[in-house]
Amino acid sequence: MKASxxxxxxxxxxxxxxxxxxxxxxxxxxLPAVFMTVFFLVPLGLxxxxxxxxxxxxxxxxxxxxxxxxxxxxxxxIDSFLNSVQSGLATVALAFALGFPIAxxxxxxxxxxxxxxxxxLFILPFMISEVIRLxxxxxxxxxNGIINDALIGSGLIDAPLDWLIFTPTGVVIGEVLSxxxxxxxxxxxxxxxxxxxxxxxxxxxGSGVVRTFVRVIVPxxxxxxxxxxxxxxxxxxxLFLVPDLLGGPGAANAGTLVVNAISALDFPLAMAIAAxxxxxxxxxxxxxxRLFDITRILQPYR
Length: 302
Prior knowledge:
Elements: H1 5-19, H2 31-50, E1 54-55, E2 60-61, H3 67-73, H4 77-109, H5 112-123, H6 130-135, H7 138-141, H8 146-153, H9 168-192, H10 196-204, H11 209-220, H12 222-238, H13 241-246, H14 254-263, H15 267-292
Antiparallel strand pairs: 1-2
Helix pairs in contact: 2-15, 3-15, 4-9, 4-12, 9-12, 12-15, 14-15
């Protein structure tokens, strides 16, 4: 319906002015960039700057010192950090082994109308608090939990398994269950850009399931796999709730080290650990983008 009268004409002119390429409306497209700059890039930059500040009794003061990095790399904290790196790598491997085949199955075996609904089922757990989801694993993994009771009841074991919880294995299990949906979602998003004729061509050429998976599916979905890998690995380093709830005595990851440093009012140390994590993330992102070109995850293959 066209605007009538002077008022309607004025509103029409105002609207066209707002949405014009050179109008004020173009500023809306810059808001995400401004938001990311203010609340992401600037804090990261301050983290690097504050990591070389001098510690005071309750805060820190401007200066340049690498004492915080020395406290991190020349102490037992680096061992906890390296253990969390190993845990993160194990989490990524298990998430890939469990999650990516699910994404391939959903993409290849389900009708198009049901594919997005199936992927949504793996996203629904994120609507529940992380604390609740992790704490709910205790009665499942414990000595008298569901898994041990089922294994003992079936006669497969004689005594409860002690390594399912409050151990590094328990931490990996918690991280896999926390981040598995990201592997499913990113894998499906990458596979969604692959046309169906690729799979039909592999079948016509007599390529087996394993060969098709290794030589065709994984290379085509590499950008999505890497995006999920980076997200899972970085978050497994920083999510301190998992070792707190499912790890044993003294269990810690990089996030735990940062929280402990803040509790001790050693803010430069906390910033130094955070800076190391940021540097690791940037290096991995650059390497992965150079190898796989992450932008291809949003582009269909032709």
